[in-house]
């Protein structure tokens, strides 16, 4: 696959830091003051930085995010707090959300779960999968990604969940479900911020989007029933393969199909430039709005349980924090050791360390119930992931400048 991404040469100390390979459509990466200190950083999703000499600041990195993305962790915390308060003081709230249900999930919540996934999946460039098969140089990278995402990641999250939550069975299982869901949403943002390889990231996201429909249910059954020996039917609940698969098909399959139809029908009618620059900036933020809405509903329905078990809720953050950090650092070190370029190494790291918390929330809600500890544990996922991986985006840029990388 030819590299269609223009490369940039960075010149420090000038008013603008930019230079495009073909001389056209240059993008200002960094605006310098008279003293040469950095201002806001802008990173084009279709371009990558190929030199580590830019003076990137943490403030500039954060400012490059959209308003919703920049304060996502804050919105999640506020949604949790408001939800708990509403659930604790407003009587009859559960009944209001359970008038009509789909697969045991109330219709208003189902809409929230669908809209968490639909806009995100509409960003994915599925056509990149076919380009990947034409380039054997990417086969090794894809193999590494599949091993990290579908073998190492779930195994590590399960081990950390057991090590830190041995006495909290249901919360532990919710954490394991987060570890089984591979990231297809926020990884696009982290990769963009850290100047990773955009086309390689598009390939990995497209592959993981499809593999989750195939692999999530059998992996969940294996790690929850076989490894953890939970939900075997000996107790109060028997976890069945069809229950998980049906939830995946409803809450991932339906928005995936809708996203593919949306993407390629609108591109055919209006063109790719209109789709990327006009439609997605309006449609894309609906995913974060739906996420915040869903979190508010879940915490509203669990207001009493959250207050009574606040210590357990905080403990759920421990294995997730360890997972994001260990997985990211380990992947970066491995990729650098085997001679992978910075752009592809950082893409591998964020793809392996991120998780599709939207899917984990949807499946946990549908299978175990919206007021279950499993669903509550899955909901804590984005609160931990967003600030940790945002910080790691800045660490990646710092490592880009400090270390020597393969070309």
UniProtKB/TrEMBL annotation:
Its main location: membrane. The chain crosses the membrane at residues 71-90, 102-121, 142-165, 171-190, 202-224, 244-267, 279-301, 321-342, 349-370, 376-399. Pfam families: SBF (PF01758). Gene3D superfamilies: 1.20.1530.20. One of its GO terms (molecular function) is antimonite transmembrane transporter activity. GO terms for cellular component: plasma membrane. One of its GO terms (biological process) is response to arsenic-containing substance. It is a multi-pass membrane protein. It is found in: Cell membrane. The keyword Transmembrane applies. Keywords: Arsenical resistance, Cell membrane, Membrane, Transmembrane, Transmembrane helix, Transport. NCBIfam families: acr3 (TIGR00832). Belongs to the arsenical resistance-3 (ACR3) (TC 2.A.59) family. This is Arsenite transporter. It comes from Coccomyxa viridis.
């Amino acid at each position: 696959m030819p590299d269609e991404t223009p490369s940039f040469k960075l010149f420090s100390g000038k008013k603008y830091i930019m230079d495009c390979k073909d001389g056209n459509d240059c993008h200002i990466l960094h605006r310098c003051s008279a003293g040469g200190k950095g201002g806001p950083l802008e990173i084009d999703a279709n371009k990558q930085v190929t030199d580590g000499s830019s003076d990137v600041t943490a403030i500039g990195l954060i400012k490059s995010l959209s308003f919703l993305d920049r304060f996502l962790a804050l919105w999640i915390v506020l949604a949790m707090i408001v939800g708990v308060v509403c659930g604790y003081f407003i009587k009859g709230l559960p009944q209001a959300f359970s008038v009509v249900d789909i697969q045991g999930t109330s219709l208003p919540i189902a809409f929230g779960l669908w809209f968490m996934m639909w806009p995100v999946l509409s960003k994915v460039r599925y056509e990149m999968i076919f380009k990947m098969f034409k380039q054997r140089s990417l086969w090794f990278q894809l193999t590494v990604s599949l091993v990290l995402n579908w073998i190492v990641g779930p195994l590590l999250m399960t081990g950390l969940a057991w090590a830190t939550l041995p006495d909290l069975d249901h919360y532990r299982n919710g954490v394991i479900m987060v570890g089984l869901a591979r990231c297809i949403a926020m990884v696009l943002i982290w990769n963009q911020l850290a100047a990773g390889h955009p086309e390689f990231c598009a390939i990995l996201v497209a592959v993981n989007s499809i593999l989750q429909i195939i692999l999530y249910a059998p992996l969940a059954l294996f790690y929850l029933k076989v490894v953890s020996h939970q939900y075997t039917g000996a107790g109060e609940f028997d976890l069945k393969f069809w229950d998980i698969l049906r939830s995946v098909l409803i809450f991932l399959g339906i928005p995936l199909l809708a996203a593919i139809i949306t993407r390629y029908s609108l591109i055919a009618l209006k063109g790719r430039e209109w789709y990327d620059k006009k439609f997605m900036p309006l449609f894309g933020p609906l995913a974060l709005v739906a996420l915040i809405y869903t979190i508010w509903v879940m915490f509203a329905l669990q207001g009493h349980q959250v207050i009574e078990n606040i210590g357990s809720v905080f403990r759920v953050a421990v294995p997730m924090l360890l997972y994001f950090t260990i997985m990211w650092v380990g992947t970066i070190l491995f990729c650098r050791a085997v001679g992978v370029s910075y752009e592809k190494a950082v893409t591998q790291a964020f793809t392996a360390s991120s998780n599709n918390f939207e899917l984990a929330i949807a499946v946990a809600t549908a299978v175990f119930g919206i007021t279950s500890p499993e669903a509550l544990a899955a909901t804590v996922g984005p609160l931990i992931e967003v600030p940790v991986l945002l910080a790691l985006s800045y660490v990646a840029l710092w490592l880009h400048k400090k270390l020597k990388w393969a070309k």
